[in-house]
Write a structure and sequence with these properties.
512 residues; FAD/NAD(P)-binding domain; Enolase-like, domain 1; five-stranded antiparallel beta sheet; 15 helices; 23 strands
Length: 512
């Protein structure tokens, strides 16, 4: 089991919930309708949902229930990001006419707060809660014996037990996996699985990888007082995102003090009485000593020791192979979440689990089979400002041969954003050419992750951009930027007479 460090009262509480030291595995009395391997988001949702429908369910976890999201991902990172945002607001308070002298960050207290809140949240994913829901919870390594049984915890001499099943679900997720970097194996480095155990802030922090995790941690640690060196092999951060959006975030990160080493070449790590990071960036050579090094690039599926071959389940370096119904190459075994999805987000795992419940238990029922390809999946990177996206980028549409119209509303023209000093950003929506059918959107705003849901609902329910424009949005709010895009679309549909009347109305002095 991964060590929960520091072993304080908060991590002890976490452990007592998600891997109780004195837990006794149950004894199976008959075959299970469903055996779920992995108690991250996908596994938990599958197990709880199936049990709630009356199925006999077993849930197996070799480490900590809650998976990456609770323990080393979404929850702890957002706790730290929340503290970093407060620190940044305090330092920028003078811009609002408020003076806060000598802003001090107590990093140990920041991390303790995170651990306390994480422990408080952990009861939702606890072994006791799921047992109370009717799920048989087992701790130990799962291994397929054949296509209809799984062994937990080794052979009988080792206290292992065999679980026969009618259906099984693989939800073992993925883990951090460092790429081959010269000298990396010679130093102790951090990943997302260890950075949240820090109790002292690194004076100088090196980060390799400017994807979502790297950017979120780079900005947060810079705001909390570390000198951060962020290395990216591409020309700019967040290479998969809309370039205009990424450039806005990049400018804000630079303002927060992040040292960005773009187009990194000849990257090497040296152990010379400490960690040294050497790299060439835009024609210049850098040789920087760092106190800690975070590797924030690379993921590997958790397929080891599952003995998938015995069950006829095919897999590769990307994970377990599934069809659109989330069935593996063994039709009685399904998979969900990071183990099989290119969209490695908690909310994706959640909704894939719902598909698995439907297809595993009711495939022949009145509802038919559900498809993963039908999911409309948004995502967000929680920098300041945030970037959120759903659907197609312009490049995706071009590759697919889909002609689009693009509408952009800058926050510099949205009153609430201006008044709150958050006017660096925009809402960009792509529609199928000549129509208001939304095919994709990107939002850059302080709370873009919340705002993108309006677009996601519209796409899921086939609501066009024009309809969004006809829905009243409260004034002043930043989401009014989305409504303004509806107005932009509607103006493209005006007749010459309508345009003339609108022009007259716009020139009228409302107060006369």
């Amino acid at each position: 089991m991964n060590a929960l460090l520091p072993h304080d009262e908060h991590n002890q509480k976490l452990e007592s919930n998600v891997h109780p030291p004195e837990w006794t595995n149950p004894t199976p009395t008959r075959p299970y309708h469903l055996v779920v391997i992995g108690a991250g988001t996908a596994g938990l949702v599958t197990a709880a949902g199936a049990a709630g429908l009356g199925a006999r369910v077993a849930l197996i976890e070799r480490d900590l229930m809650g998976g990456d999201c609770l323990n080393v991902g979404c929850v702890p990172s957002k706790g730290i990001i929340g503290a970093a945002r407060v620190a940044a607001a305090a330092k920028k308070a003078s811009e609002f006419g408020i003076e806060i002298p000598n802003v001090q960050v107590d990093f140990a207290a920041v991390m303790e707060r995170m651990r306390k809140l994480r422990a408080g949240i952990s009861h939702n994913d606890s072994a006791t809660r799921f047992s109370d829901l009717g799920v048989d919870v087992y701790f130990g390594q799962a291994s397929f014996q054949d296509s209809s049984s799984i062994r937990v915890g080794g052979d009988e001499k080792q206290g292992g037990v065999e679980l026969p099943f009618k259906r099984a679900v693989i939800a073992t997720g993925a883990r951090a996996s460092a790429p081959p970097i010269d000298g990396l194996s010679e130093v102790n480095y951090l990943t997302n699985e260890s950075i949240f155990s820090l109790t002292e802030i690194p004076r100088r922090l090196g980060i390799i990888g400017a994807g979502p995790i790297g950017c979120e941690m780079a900005q947060a640690f810079a705001r909390l007082g570390a000198e951060v060196f962020l290395v990216e092999s591409s020309d700019g951060i967040l290479p998969r995102e809309d370039r205009e959006a990424a450039e806005i975030v990049q400018a804000e990160m630079l303002r927060d003090g992040v040292n960005l080493l773009c187009c990194g070449r000849k990257l090497a790590i040296k152990n010379q009485g400490g960690i040294r990071l050497t790299v060439e960036s835009q024609g210049e050579s850098y040789d920087e000593p760092v106190d800690q090094l975070l590797v924030a690039v690379g993921r590997a599926p958790n397929v080891e020791k599952l003995n998938l071959e015995a069950a006829g389940v095919e897999f590769d370096r990307q994970g377990v192979q599934v069809n659109d119904h989330l069935q593996t190459t063994n039709s009685n075994i399904f998979a969900a979440g990071d183990i099989c999805s290119k969209y490695q987000f908690t909310h994706t795992a959640d909704f894939q689990a719902r598909i698995v419940i439907q297809n595993a238990l009711f495939a022949l029922g009145p509802f038919g089979k559900k498809k993963a390809s039908d999911l409309v999946i948004p995502w967000a990177t929680y920098t300041s400002p945030e970037i959120a996206h759903v659907g197609m980028y312009e490049t995706d549409a071009k590759k697919a041969g889909i002609e689009i119209d693009t509408y952009v509303q800058h926050l510099s023209e949205v009153d609430r954003a201006i008044l709150e000093g958050q006017d660096k950003g925009f809402v960009k929506v792509h529609t199928k050419k000549g129509t208001d059918k939304i095919v994709g959107a990107t939002i850059v705003a302080e709370n873009a992750g919340d705002m993108i849901s309006e677009i996601t609902v519209a796409m899921t329910a086939s609501i066009g951009l024009g309809k969004i424009g006809s829905a009243i949005h409260p004034y002043p709010t930043q989401s009014e930027a989305i409504r303004k895009l509806g107005d932009q679309y509607s103006r493209t549909k005006l007749t010459p007479l309508s345009k003339k009347i609108l022009g007259v109305l716009q020139r009228i002095n409302v107060g006369s």
